[in-house]
Design goal:
The protein is 62% helix and 0% strand. The chain is mainly alpha-helical and 223 residues long. It has one domain. The two termini are 20 Å apart.
Length: 223
């Protein structure tokens, strides 16, 4: 069904955002208390710890897709929504590999901005889902920025010893502002926004298409 009805975005993302915030808090507590690996890891980037929020779009993408489709805000064409979702993920991966191949410089911001652009590609195939995932992505990542700021500035600038304040050797003696900009703000507001939206869109559109929810008429969700 084509996107014709309006869904309350705040209501749609509220529960996923709260669950995600809980995951961020749990991870912080676990790292501060040195709970065991592989559940928690204080290495830079998180070391692939099981407790984290980066994998949640796998579940929340389909959650948003089902809610939107049943409310009558599904995509006009299922195939198009899936295609743009995968295109967004592909652009994200290209940008990530490009960033890994570059030396630390201001030019490194170009592939990171490309990662942010990737977040807006899935919306070309399913606007409502793209908007929901973008809203959720910022709701998920802004609290991480707050945690990272306090973690980086804790203990007189020495940090809390968590992955939130683990920095690359090049920034070991940098100012708090520079650490926060390059190690927290830039990746959280570009890479992780793109990752959240693209991953959620892929799983959301595929599940929606498989269930043929876009073909079902349904009542609108009230604002």
């Amino acid at each position: 069904m084509a996107e014709t009805n309006t869904v309350s975005m705040g209501r749609l993302i509220a529960i996923p955002a709260l669950i995600t915030l809980g995951g961020t808090i749990l991870r912080l507590v676990g790292e501060l208390r040195h709970w065991p690996s592989p559940w928690f890891n204080t290495a830079a980037g998180g070391g692939g710890a099981i407790v984290g929020i980066s994998w949640l779009p796998i579940f929340f993408g389909p959650y948003f897709a089902v809610k939107l489709a049943k409310a009558g805000s599904g995509p006009a064409k299922a195939g198009k929504s899936v295609g743009f979702a995968f295109l967004g993920l592909a652009v994200l991966f290209v940008a990530m590999f490009w960033a890994r191949s570059m030396h630390l410089s201001y030019w490194l911001l170009v592939p990171f901005l490309m990662m942010l652009v990737a977040a807006f590609i899935p919306g070309a195939g399913w606007k409502a889902l793209g908007n929901a995932l973008i809203a959720y992505a910022f709701a998920a990542r802004i609290p991480v920025l707050v945690v990272a700021f306090f973690a980086l500035s804790g203990n007189g600038g020495q940090g809390w010893g968590t992955h939130y304040d683990a920095v690359m050797p090049a920034f070991a003696h940098a100012s708090l502002a520079k650490k926060f900009l390059y190690e927290a703000f830039v990746p959280q507001m570009t890479l992780w926004i793109g990752w959240t939206v693209a991953l959620g869109a892929v799983f959301g559109t595929v599940v929606s298409a498989a269930m043929r929810l876009t073909k079902r008429p349904a009542p609108a969700v009230a604002n």
